[in-house]
Amino acid sequence: MKKHYSLWLNLVNKKNREFAKNRINNSIKNNNLTTENKIMANYEYWEWKERQSKLVINGNKAYDFFNTEWEMPLWDIEIVNFFKKMNLN
Questions:
Q1: Cα–Cα distance measured from residue 56 to residue 2, given in angstroms and rounded to the nearest whole number
Q2: N or C: which terminal CB in the chain sees fewer CB atoms within 10 Å?
Q3: DSSP single-letter state for residue 6
């Protein structure tokens, strides 16, 4: 919570913490991870789905603005599914 949900200190309160907690839980509850370390895997899944994806995809909007083609080969679904099944070690 401190790292990702505390940019504006005046918004850090019990109500907003509960809201963020519910959003995180809803985001990870159907991820179908097949790993022995669910806590770390859930964090990594959430980080990828809710933070990295938005940062990277929004960064590509500049290419769209200039009508330039772009690709994200490391986000190919086959690669993502391969690493999703990997042991965290």
A1: 22
A2: C
A3: -
67: region left, alpha or beta (phi > 0 left; psi from -120 to 50 alpha)? left
State if pTM tops 0.70: no
Interatomic CA distance for residues 63 and 68, integer angstroms: 5
Tokens of 78: 């086959």
pLDDT of 67: 95
Secondary structure letter of residue 13 according to DSSP: S
Q: How many CB atoms lie within 10 A of CB 85?
A: 9
Structure tokens at 88: 């965290």
